[in-house]
């Protein structure tokens, strides 16, 4: 468990240093076993995590080892683990470009960049849910079995993976894609990749990169955004 704790401390610093969370925002977790989850405690800065800031809970949310209460968003993490036995790590952050696009009604559900096509697929934006309530886990239920990357409307992001590093990389790609779209829209409308190129990229994903984690398919008809 000590190695996993050090990984969470390391990723927490990266999240904070890159502005993907501020103050005490965001939360992370890792699956320790079929029934045990390591999750960040409530009210701690992710850039200043210590081993004492990490809490062990079971899949029902019962605390097994703790120096404090678990994250107030713990139920969202548990929703993921109960739905996806393959997932070993979950990151919830507040990436500013991703959130700003939800305020403007712009989604990442189109194939804008080859990197995001390969790693993320079509990224859905969930319905708005009030933070730290049952509305948040409810908002992800329609999607989490089909994709590893979500944007939470007006709230943040959710990325999952077999490791914390994998979940973190998906978050970085998603926020960078949102930033590029935001910058491009300052110039004018932007055009997604065409259908033939999308098909070739998806072949690469399967045949060359051999990415097996799920992604949502893109819409059949692409328009200027």
Q: Which structural class do you get from the secondary structure elements?
A: alpha+beta
What would you give as the CATH superfamily?
Class II aldolase/adducin N-terminal domain
Number-wise, the strands total 8
Number of helices: 7
Question: SSE order, as H and E?
Answer: HEEEEHEHHEHEEHH
Q: Might you state the CATH topology name?
A: L-fuculose-1-phosphate Aldolase
Q: What do you see in this structure?
A:
This protein has 225 residues and is of the alpha+beta class. It has a single domain (2-207), classed as L-fuculose-1-phosphate Aldolase. It is 36% helix and 16% strand. It is built from seven helices and eight strands, in the order H-E-E-E-E-H-E-H-H-E-H-E-E-H-H. It has helices spanning 2-17, 74-83, 96-103, 114-119, 135-140, 164-185, 195-207, and strands spanning 27-31, 36-40, 54-58, 63-65, 89-93, 125-126, 149-152, 156-161. An eight-stranded mixed sheet has the order 4-3-2-1-5-8-7-6, with helices on both faces. A hairpin with a 4-residue loop joins strand 1 (27-31) and strand 2. The longest helix has 22 residues, at 164-185.
Topology:
Elements: H1 2-17, E1 27-31, E2 36-40, E3 54-58, E4 63-65, H2 74-83, E5 89-93, H3 96-103, H4 114-119, E6 125-126, H5 135-140, E7 149-152, E8 156-161, H6 164-185, H7 195-207
Parallel strand pairs: 6-7
Antiparallel strand pairs: 1-2, 1-5, 2-3, 3-4, 5-8, 7-8
């Amino acid at each position: 468990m000590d190695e996993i704790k050090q990984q969470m401390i390391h990723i927490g610093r990266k999240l904070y240093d890159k502005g993907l969370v501020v103050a005490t925002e965001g939360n992370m977790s890792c699956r320790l076993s079929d029934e045990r989850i390591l999750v960040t405690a409530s009210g701690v800065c992710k850039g200043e995590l210590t081993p004492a800031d990490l809490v062990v809970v079971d899949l029902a949310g019962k605390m097994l080892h703790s120096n404090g209460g678990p994250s107030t968003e713990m139920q969202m993490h548990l929703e993921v683990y109960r739905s996806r036995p393959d997932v070993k790590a979950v990151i919830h952050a507040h990436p500013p470009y991703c959130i700003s696009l939800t305020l403007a009604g712009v989604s990442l559900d189109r194939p804008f960049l080859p990197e995001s096509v390969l790693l993320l697929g079509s990224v859905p934006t969930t319905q708005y849910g009030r933070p730290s309530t049952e509305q948040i886990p409810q908002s992800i239920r329609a999607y989490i079995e089909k994709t590893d990357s979500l944007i939470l409307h007006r709230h943040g992001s959710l990325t999952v993976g077999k490791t914390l590093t994998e979940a973190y990389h998906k978050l970085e790609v998603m926020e960078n894609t949102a930033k590029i779209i935001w910058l491009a829209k300052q110039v004018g409308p932007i055009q997604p990749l065409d259908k033939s190129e999308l098909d070739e990229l998806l072949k690469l994903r399967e045949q060359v990169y051999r990415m097996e984690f799920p992604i949502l398919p893109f819409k059949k008809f692409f328009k200027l955004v």
